[in-house]
Write a structure and sequence with these properties.
Elements lengths: L1 E6 L6 H12 L4 E7 L4 E6 L5 H10 L6 E3 L1
Antiparallel strand pairs: 1-3, 1-4, 2-3
Helix pairs in contact: 1-2
Amino acid sequence: MTTEQFIVPGVSCQHCVSAVTREVSALSGVKQVQVDLDTKLVTVEHGAEVASEAIVAAIQEAGYEEVSLVK
């Protein structure tokens, strides 16, 4: 398993949490998604078959254009 974090400045409410969680969870190989409204961090636990770019695309699909991978 791999854990990655993404900064998503646009998340600000429970609806945002639900939208991001729904889109990212739909990716095959994603095991867990956590969204922290205070830090604006999205933490994703996933298998090696899931590319970071796919997670970014899923977050963008949820309506959040500004997404940064925390390195």
